[in-house]
DNA sequence: TTGCAAAAACTAACGTCATTAGTTATTATA
DNA sequence: TATAATAACTAATGACGTTAGTTTTTGCAA
Protein backbone atom coordinates (compact mmCIF):
# COMPACT_ATOMS: atom_id res chain seq x y z
CA UNK A 1 0.00 0.00 0.00
CA UNK A 2 1.74 3.12 -1.19
CA UNK A 3 0.30 6.44 -0.30
CA UNK A 4 0.46 9.38 -2.64
CA UNK A 5 2.23 12.25 -0.94
CA UNK A 6 0.99 15.17 -3.03
CA UNK A 7 4.46 16.63 -3.35
CA UNK A 8 5.25 19.47 -5.67
CA UNK A 9 8.28 21.56 -6.48
CA UNK A 10 7.31 24.33 -4.12
CA UNK A 11 6.95 22.24 -0.97
CA UNK A 12 10.16 20.50 -1.92
CA UNK A 13 11.99 23.80 -2.06
CA UNK A 14 10.55 25.01 1.22
CA UNK A 15 11.62 21.85 2.99
CA UNK A 16 15.03 21.95 1.35
CA UNK A 17 15.55 25.53 2.43
CA UNK A 18 14.68 24.60 5.99
CA UNK A 19 17.15 21.75 5.95
CA UNK A 20 19.86 23.97 4.53
CA UNK A 21 19.22 26.55 7.22
CA UNK A 22 19.40 23.98 9.96
CA UNK A 23 22.42 22.00 8.85
CA UNK A 24 24.19 24.09 6.25
CA UNK A 25 23.96 23.79 2.51
CA UNK A 26 26.66 21.12 2.42
CA UNK A 27 24.49 18.90 4.55
CA UNK A 28 21.43 19.30 2.44
CA UNK A 29 21.26 15.82 0.94
CA UNK A 30 18.57 14.23 -1.12
CA UNK A 31 18.37 11.45 1.46
CA UNK A 32 17.73 13.84 4.30
CA UNK A 33 15.22 15.78 2.26
CA UNK A 34 13.38 12.62 1.26
CA UNK A 35 13.28 11.47 4.85
CA UNK A 36 11.92 14.82 5.99
CA UNK A 37 9.18 14.54 3.39
CA UNK A 38 8.33 10.91 4.17
CA UNK A 39 9.43 9.68 0.78
CA UNK A 40 12.24 7.63 -0.78
CA UNK A 41 14.97 9.66 -2.36
CA UNK A 42 14.45 8.56 -5.97
CA UNK A 43 10.94 9.96 -5.74
CA UNK A 44 12.38 13.44 -5.54
CA UNK A 45 13.46 13.12 -9.14
CA UNK A 46 9.85 13.54 -10.16
CA UNK A 47 10.06 17.15 -9.07
CA UNK A 48 13.69 18.09 -9.27
CA UNK A 49 16.48 17.19 -11.62
CA UNK A 50 19.01 15.98 -9.07
CA UNK A 51 20.99 17.86 -6.48
CA UNK A 52 22.49 20.51 -8.78
CA UNK A 53 19.05 21.48 -9.97
CA UNK A 54 17.77 21.63 -6.40
CA UNK A 55 20.56 23.96 -5.35
CA UNK A 56 20.07 26.11 -8.37
CA UNK A 57 16.36 26.32 -7.61
CA UNK A 58 17.16 27.28 -4.04
CA UNK A 59 19.34 30.09 -5.30
CA UNK A 60 16.50 31.46 -7.41
CA UNK A 61 14.13 31.06 -4.48
CA UNK A 62 16.55 33.07 -2.37
CA UNK A 63 17.00 35.89 -4.85
CA UNK A 64 13.26 36.15 -5.10
CA UNK A 65 13.07 36.64 -1.33
CA UNK A 66 15.91 39.13 -1.38
CA UNK A 67 14.40 41.24 -4.14
CA UNK A 68 11.09 41.44 -2.32
CA UNK A 69 12.76 42.19 0.98
CA UNK A 70 14.92 44.95 -0.38
CA UNK A 71 12.17 46.59 -2.36
CA UNK A 72 10.31 46.70 0.90
CA UNK A 73 13.28 48.08 2.81
CA UNK A 74 13.60 51.21 0.69
CA UNK A 75 9.93 52.15 0.49
CA UNK A 76 9.48 55.79 1.46
CA UNK A 77 13.20 56.28 1.97
CA UNK A 78 15.98 57.78 -0.05
CA UNK A 79 19.69 58.47 -0.01
CA UNK A 80 21.69 57.31 2.96
CA UNK A 81 18.63 56.30 4.90
CA UNK A 82 17.51 53.97 2.13
CA UNK A 83 20.90 52.37 1.78
CA UNK A 84 21.29 51.80 5.49
CA UNK A 85 17.86 50.25 5.69
CA UNK A 86 18.61 48.04 2.75
CA UNK A 87 21.86 46.94 4.35
CA UNK A 88 20.40 45.91 7.65
CA UNK A 89 17.62 44.04 5.86
CA UNK A 90 20.17 42.19 3.79
CA UNK A 91 22.14 41.11 6.81
CA UNK A 92 19.13 40.20 8.85
CA UNK A 93 18.01 37.94 6.05
CA UNK A 94 21.43 36.33 5.76
CA UNK A 95 21.37 35.62 9.48
CA UNK A 96 17.87 34.22 9.54
CA UNK A 97 18.24 32.01 6.48
CA UNK A 98 21.90 31.03 6.42
CA UNK A 99 21.49 27.95 4.27
CA UNK A 100 19.33 29.68 1.75
CA UNK A 101 21.75 32.57 1.60
CA UNK A 102 24.58 30.11 1.04
CA UNK A 103 22.81 28.78 -2.04
CA UNK A 104 22.40 32.31 -3.34
CA UNK A 105 26.02 33.29 -3.57
CA UNK A 106 27.20 29.99 -4.94
CA UNK A 107 25.33 30.51 -8.16
CA UNK A 108 27.01 28.91 -11.12
CA UNK A 109 27.59 30.82 -14.31
CA UNK A 110 25.42 28.20 -15.95
CA UNK A 111 22.38 29.11 -13.92
CA UNK A 112 18.93 29.72 -15.29
CA UNK A 113 17.81 32.81 -17.20
CA UNK A 114 15.18 33.23 -14.51
CA UNK A 115 17.96 33.78 -12.01
CA UNK A 116 19.60 36.27 -14.34
CA UNK A 117 16.38 38.23 -14.57
CA UNK A 118 16.05 38.39 -10.81
CA UNK A 119 19.67 39.45 -10.58
CA UNK A 120 18.93 42.38 -12.84
CA UNK A 121 16.02 43.39 -10.67
CA UNK A 122 18.35 43.39 -7.69
CA UNK A 123 20.83 45.46 -9.64
CA UNK A 124 18.21 48.03 -10.58
CA UNK A 125 17.25 48.54 -6.95
CA UNK A 126 20.84 49.44 -6.19
CA UNK A 127 21.07 51.74 -9.18
CA UNK A 128 17.99 53.66 -8.23
CA UNK A 129 18.91 54.00 -4.61
CA UNK A 130 22.25 55.44 -5.61
CA UNK A 131 20.82 58.02 -8.00
CA UNK A 132 20.83 60.86 -5.45
CA UNK A 133 24.60 60.54 -5.23
CA UNK A 134 25.01 61.57 -8.85
CA UNK A 135 28.01 59.36 -9.42
CA UNK A 136 27.71 58.78 -13.16
CA UNK A 137 27.31 55.41 -14.79
CA UNK A 138 30.74 53.90 -14.33
CA UNK A 139 31.17 54.95 -10.74
CA UNK A 140 27.69 53.84 -9.87
CA UNK A 141 28.59 50.37 -11.04
CA UNK A 142 31.85 50.42 -9.11
CA UNK A 143 29.92 51.53 -6.06
CA UNK A 144 27.40 48.76 -6.43
CA UNK A 145 30.19 46.24 -6.51
CA UNK A 146 31.47 47.82 -3.35
CA UNK A 147 28.14 47.66 -1.61
CA UNK A 148 27.55 44.10 -2.61
CA UNK A 149 31.04 43.12 -1.53
CA UNK A 150 30.61 44.81 1.77
CA UNK A 151 27.26 43.23 2.46
CA UNK A 152 28.20 39.81 1.26
CA UNK A 153 31.58 39.92 2.96
CA UNK A 154 29.93 40.84 6.20
CA UNK A 155 27.34 38.11 5.93
CA UNK A 156 29.86 35.51 4.92
CA UNK A 157 32.41 36.33 7.60
CA UNK A 158 29.70 36.43 10.21
CA UNK A 159 28.45 33.01 9.17
CA UNK A 160 31.88 31.44 9.00
CA UNK A 161 33.09 32.77 12.32
CA UNK A 162 35.46 35.10 10.56
CA UNK A 163 34.87 37.77 13.18
CA UNK A 164 36.36 36.55 16.36
CA UNK A 165 36.50 39.68 18.41
CA UNK A 166 33.67 40.49 20.76
CA UNK A 167 32.18 43.51 19.12
CA UNK A 168 28.63 44.11 18.07
CA UNK A 169 28.03 43.17 14.43
CA UNK A 170 25.39 45.78 13.78
CA UNK A 171 27.50 48.57 15.17
CA UNK A 172 30.33 47.52 12.90
CA UNK A 173 28.08 47.43 9.88
CA UNK A 174 26.66 50.82 10.64
CA UNK A 175 30.06 52.38 11.13
CA UNK A 176 31.43 50.89 7.95
CA UNK A 177 28.46 51.83 5.81
CA UNK A 178 28.51 55.40 7.07
CA UNK A 179 32.20 55.70 6.27
CA UNK A 180 31.77 54.31 2.78
CA UNK A 181 28.81 56.56 2.01
CA UNK A 182 30.63 59.58 3.36
CA UNK A 183 33.52 58.75 1.08
CA UNK A 184 31.16 58.66 -1.86
CA UNK A 185 29.67 62.03 -1.01
CA UNK A 186 32.98 63.79 -0.73
CA UNK A 187 33.50 63.13 -4.43
CA UNK A 188 35.51 60.51 -6.19
CA UNK B 1 56.07 -5.57 -4.43
CA UNK B 2 54.89 -2.41 -2.74
CA UNK B 3 56.91 0.69 -3.16
CA UNK B 4 57.32 3.18 -0.36
CA UNK B 5 56.16 6.58 -1.50
CA UNK B 6 58.04 8.91 0.87
CA UNK B 7 54.91 10.93 1.53
CA UNK B 8 54.68 13.47 4.29
CA UNK B 9 52.14 16.00 5.48
CA UNK B 10 53.72 18.85 3.57
CA UNK B 11 53.67 17.24 0.12
CA UNK B 12 50.16 16.09 0.85
CA UNK B 13 49.04 19.64 1.56
CA UNK B 14 50.75 21.02 -1.50
CA UNK B 15 49.06 18.48 -3.73
CA UNK B 16 45.73 19.02 -2.02
CA UNK B 17 45.97 22.77 -2.52
CA UNK B 18 46.69 22.24 -6.20
CA UNK B 19 43.67 19.99 -6.56
CA UNK B 20 41.47 22.47 -4.75
CA UNK B 21 42.67 25.26 -7.01
CA UNK B 22 41.99 23.24 -10.12
CA UNK B 23 38.61 21.78 -9.28
CA UNK B 24 37.27 23.75 -6.34
CA UNK B 25 37.39 22.82 -2.69
CA UNK B 26 34.21 20.77 -2.97
CA UNK B 27 35.87 18.52 -5.48
CA UNK B 28 38.94 17.94 -3.39
CA UNK B 29 38.34 14.31 -2.45
CA UNK B 30 40.62 11.89 -0.72
CA UNK B 31 40.29 9.58 -3.72
CA UNK B 32 41.43 12.21 -6.16
CA UNK B 33 44.26 13.23 -3.89
CA UNK B 34 45.40 9.65 -3.43
CA UNK B 35 45.32 9.08 -7.17
CA UNK B 36 47.34 12.21 -7.79
CA UNK B 37 49.93 10.96 -5.32
CA UNK B 38 50.02 7.41 -6.68
CA UNK B 39 48.63 5.89 -3.52
CA UNK B 40 45.45 4.25 -2.25
CA UNK B 41 43.19 6.55 -0.30
CA UNK B 42 43.40 4.81 3.08
CA UNK B 43 47.14 5.45 3.00
CA UNK B 44 46.46 9.15 3.38
CA UNK B 45 45.29 8.50 6.90
CA UNK B 46 48.89 7.99 7.90
CA UNK B 47 49.47 11.69 7.40
CA UNK B 48 46.11 13.33 7.81
CA UNK B 49 43.16 12.68 10.05
CA UNK B 50 40.47 12.42 7.42
CA UNK B 51 38.95 15.06 5.19
CA UNK B 52 38.01 17.57 7.90
CA UNK B 53 41.57 17.60 9.16
CA UNK B 54 42.88 18.05 5.63
CA UNK B 55 40.67 21.04 5.02
CA UNK B 56 41.54 22.54 8.33
CA UNK B 57 45.23 22.09 7.53
CA UNK B 58 44.68 23.75 4.16
CA UNK B 59 43.12 26.71 5.91
CA UNK B 60 46.15 27.12 8.14
CA UNK B 61 48.43 26.72 5.15
CA UNK B 62 46.50 29.48 3.43
CA UNK B 63 46.60 31.90 6.34
CA UNK B 64 50.31 31.35 6.55
CA UNK B 65 50.65 32.38 2.90
CA UNK B 66 48.38 35.37 3.40
CA UNK B 67 50.25 36.64 6.43
CA UNK B 68 53.56 36.45 4.60
CA UNK B 69 52.13 38.05 1.51
CA UNK B 70 50.56 40.94 3.33
CA UNK B 71 53.56 41.64 5.49
CA UNK B 72 55.45 41.88 2.26
CA UNK B 73 52.86 44.13 0.65
CA UNK B 74 53.16 46.87 3.25
CA UNK B 75 56.93 47.01 3.54
CA UNK B 76 58.13 50.57 3.14
CA UNK B 77 54.61 51.91 2.79
CA UNK B 78 52.17 53.59 5.09
CA UNK B 79 48.68 55.01 5.22
CA UNK B 80 46.53 54.79 2.16
CA UNK B 81 49.35 53.49 0.01
CA UNK B 82 49.92 50.57 2.35
CA UNK B 83 46.26 49.67 2.50
CA UNK B 84 45.81 49.79 -1.24
CA UNK B 85 48.87 47.63 -1.76
CA UNK B 86 47.63 45.17 0.81
CA UNK B 87 44.25 45.04 -0.89
CA UNK B 88 45.52 44.27 -4.34
CA UNK B 89 47.82 41.61 -2.91
CA UNK B 90 44.91 40.02 -1.13
CA UNK B 91 42.81 39.86 -4.24
CA UNK B 92 45.60 38.69 -6.46
CA UNK B 93 46.17 35.83 -4.08
CA UNK B 94 42.50 34.92 -3.98
CA UNK B 95 42.47 34.83 -7.77
CA UNK B 96 45.59 32.76 -8.13
CA UNK B 97 44.74 30.23 -5.45
CA UNK B 98 40.96 30.00 -5.48
CA UNK B 99 40.70 26.60 -3.84
CA UNK B 100 43.14 27.44 -1.12
CA UNK B 101 41.35 30.69 -0.48
CA UNK B 102 38.09 28.82 -0.24
CA UNK B 103 39.49 26.68 2.54
CA UNK B 104 40.60 29.80 4.37
CA UNK B 105 37.26 31.45 4.84
CA UNK B 106 35.40 28.29 5.70
CA UNK B 107 37.30 27.89 8.91
CA UNK B 108 35.30 26.25 11.64
CA UNK B 109 35.10 27.73 15.09
CA UNK B 110 36.64 24.49 16.26
CA UNK B 111 39.82 25.02 14.31
CA UNK B 112 43.31 24.66 15.69
CA UNK B 113 45.02 27.12 18.05
CA UNK B 114 47.71 27.43 15.40
CA UNK B 115 45.12 28.92 13.09
CA UNK B 116 43.98 31.27 15.80
CA UNK B 117 47.54 32.47 16.29
CA UNK B 118 47.95 33.17 12.59
CA UNK B 119 44.62 34.96 12.61
CA UNK B 120 45.92 37.28 15.30
CA UNK B 121 49.01 38.02 13.25
CA UNK B 122 46.77 38.95 10.36
CA UNK B 123 44.74 41.16 12.66
CA UNK B 124 47.82 42.94 13.94
CA UNK B 125 48.91 43.82 10.43
CA UNK B 126 45.59 45.54 9.89
CA UNK B 127 45.80 47.32 13.21
CA UNK B 128 49.23 48.72 12.54
CA UNK B 129 48.45 49.80 9.03
CA UNK B 130 45.45 51.72 10.31
CA UNK B 131 47.35 53.53 13.06
CA UNK B 132 47.95 56.67 10.98
CA UNK B 133 44.22 57.19 10.79
CA UNK B 134 43.96 57.68 14.53
CA UNK B 135 40.57 56.06 14.82
CA UNK B 136 40.68 54.86 18.37
CA UNK B 137 40.36 51.25 19.45
CA UNK B 138 36.68 50.58 18.81
CA UNK B 139 36.55 52.25 15.44
CA UNK B 140 39.75 50.60 14.35
CA UNK B 141 38.11 47.24 14.96
CA UNK B 142 34.99 48.29 13.12
CA UNK B 143 37.14 49.43 10.26
CA UNK B 144 39.03 46.19 10.14
CA UNK B 145 35.78 44.32 9.85
CA UNK B 146 34.90 46.61 7.02
CA UNK B 147 38.17 46.07 5.21
CA UNK B 148 37.99 42.34 5.62
CA UNK B 149 34.38 42.27 4.46
CA UNK B 150 35.21 44.37 1.46
CA UNK B 151 38.18 42.25 0.46
CA UNK B 152 36.53 38.94 1.12
CA UNK B 153 33.29 40.02 -0.48
CA UNK B 154 35.13 41.10 -3.55
CA UNK B 155 37.10 37.88 -3.77
CA UNK B 156 34.08 35.73 -3.14
CA UNK B 157 31.81 37.46 -5.62
CA UNK B 158 34.53 37.43 -8.21
CA UNK B 159 35.02 33.70 -7.75
CA UNK B 160 31.34 32.88 -7.79
CA UNK B 161 30.50 34.94 -10.85
CA UNK B 162 28.64 37.37 -8.69
CA UNK B 163 29.80 40.27 -10.85
CA UNK B 164 28.13 39.89 -14.16
CA UNK B 165 28.69 43.27 -15.70
CA UNK B 166 31.66 43.85 -17.92
CA UNK B 167 33.70 46.20 -15.84
CA UNK B 168 37.29 45.88 -14.75
CA UNK B 169 37.62 44.28 -11.33
CA UNK B 170 40.72 46.15 -10.30
CA UNK B 171 39.25 49.50 -11.19
CA UNK B 172 36.22 48.70 -9.08
CA UNK B 173 38.35 47.65 -6.15
CA UNK B 174 40.47 50.77 -6.39
CA UNK B 175 37.46 53.05 -6.56
CA UNK B 176 35.77 51.39 -3.64
CA UNK B 177 38.82 51.34 -1.44
CA UNK B 178 39.53 54.99 -2.09
CA UNK B 179 35.97 55.90 -1.20
CA UNK B 180 36.04 53.92 2.03
CA UNK B 181 39.37 55.37 3.09
CA UNK B 182 38.25 58.89 2.28
CA UNK B 183 35.21 58.30 4.43
CA UNK B 184 37.46 57.25 7.28
CA UNK B 185 39.61 60.35 6.96
CA UNK B 186 36.74 62.76 7.04
CA UNK B 187 36.03 61.62 10.56
CA UNK B 188 33.46 59.22 11.90
C1' DT C 1 -19.02 4.55 -15.45
C1' DT C 2 -15.27 2.57 -17.46
C1' DG C 3 -10.83 2.48 -19.52
C1' DC C 4 -6.51 4.45 -20.39
C1' DA C 5 -2.61 7.44 -20.16
C1' DA C 6 0.16 10.37 -17.35
C1' DA C 7 2.16 11.16 -13.06
C1' DA C 8 4.14 9.97 -8.70
C1' DA C 9 5.47 6.95 -5.87
C1' DC C 10 8.28 2.61 -5.29
C1' DT C 11 12.36 -1.26 -5.31
C1' DA C 12 16.70 -2.72 -6.94
C1' DA C 13 21.12 -1.79 -8.37
C1' DC C 14 25.52 0.72 -9.40
C1' DG C 15 29.39 3.68 -8.70
C1' DT C 16 31.75 6.97 -5.80
C1' DC C 17 33.25 8.44 -1.57
C1' DA C 18 35.04 8.51 3.45
C1' DT C 19 36.35 5.74 6.87
C1' DT C 20 37.77 1.66 9.81
C1' DA C 21 40.05 -2.72 10.73
C1' DG C 22 43.36 -5.68 9.96
C1' DT C 23 47.62 -7.11 7.09
C1' DT C 24 52.14 -6.82 4.95
C1' DA C 25 56.27 -4.83 3.72
C1' DT C 26 59.76 -1.48 4.45
C1' DT C 27 62.69 1.33 7.19
C1' DA C 28 65.24 2.71 11.21
C1' DT C 29 67.19 1.67 15.48
C1' DA C 30 68.98 -0.80 19.32
C1' DT D 1 71.15 -8.62 12.96
C1' DA D 2 66.73 -8.58 15.29
C1' DT D 3 62.98 -5.87 16.47
C1' DA D 4 59.86 -2.07 16.68
C1' DA D 5 57.78 1.67 14.29
C1' DT D 6 56.08 3.27 10.09
C1' DA D 7 53.78 3.50 5.73
C1' DA D 8 51.87 1.35 2.52
C1' DC D 9 48.22 -2.16 1.34
C1' DT D 10 43.44 -5.04 0.93
C1' DA D 11 38.88 -5.76 2.39
C1' DA D 12 34.71 -4.19 4.06
C1' DT D 13 31.00 -0.96 5.56
C1' DG D 14 27.74 2.63 5.20
C1' DA D 15 26.15 7.01 3.15
C1' DC D 16 25.02 9.26 -0.86
C1' DG D 17 23.47 10.45 -5.84
C1' DT D 18 21.66 8.57 -9.64
C1' DT D 19 19.46 5.41 -13.17
C1' DA D 20 16.34 1.81 -14.69
C1' DG D 21 12.46 -0.46 -14.39
C1' DT D 22 7.98 -1.37 -11.76
C1' DT D 23 3.66 -0.46 -9.46
C1' DT D 24 0.06 2.33 -8.06
C1' DT D 25 -2.73 6.20 -8.03
C1' DT D 26 -5.10 9.85 -10.31
C1' DG D 27 -7.41 12.54 -13.88
C1' DC D 28 -9.68 12.66 -18.11
C1' DA D 29 -12.03 11.07 -22.24
C1' DA D 30 -15.07 7.99 -24.32
Describe the structure using short key phrases.
188 residues; mainly alpha; homodimer; DNA-binding; Tetracycline Repressor, domain 2; elongated; 8 helices
Description:
With 188 residues, chain A is mainly alpha-helical. The first copy, chain A, has a single domain, classed as Tetracycline Repressor, domain 2, CATH 1.10.357.10. The first copy, chain A, is built from 8 helices and no strands. Chain A has helices at residues 9-23, 30-37, 50-73, 79-96, 98-105, 113-130, 137-159, 169-185. The first copy, chain A, starts with 8 loop residues before the first helix and ends with a helix. The mean pLDDT of chain A is 94. Chains A and B meet through helix 7 and helix 8 of A and helix 6, helix 7 and helix 8 of B. Chain A binds a DNA duplex (30 and 30 nucleotides) through loops.
In short:
The structure is a homodimer of 188-residue chains. Chain A is mainly α and 188 residues long.
CATH homology superfamily of chain A: Tetracycline Repressor, domain 2
Q: Specify the CATH class of chain A.
A: Mainly Alpha
Percent in strands of chain A: under 5%
Named CATH topology of chain A: Tetracycline Repressor, domain 2
The most extensive contact between chains is:
A-B, 43 and 44 residues
Rg from Cα of chain A: 19 Å
Number of strands of chain A: 0
> Quick one: overall form of chain A?
elongated
Stretches of chain A where pLDDT is under 50 for at least 5 consecutive residues are none
Span of the ends, CA to CA of chain A: 70 Å
Indicate the percent of residues in helices of chain A.
55-70%
Architecture of chain A in CATH? Answer: Orthogonal Bundle
- Determine the oligomeric state from the structure: homodimer
Structural class category of chain A: mainly alpha
Number of helices of chain A: 8
Amino acid sequence: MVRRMGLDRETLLVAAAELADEAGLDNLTLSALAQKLGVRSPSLYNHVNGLPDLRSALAAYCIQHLVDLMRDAVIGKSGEEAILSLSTSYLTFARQRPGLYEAFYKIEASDSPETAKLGEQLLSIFIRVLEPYGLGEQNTLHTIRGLRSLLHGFASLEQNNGFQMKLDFDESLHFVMKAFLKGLESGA
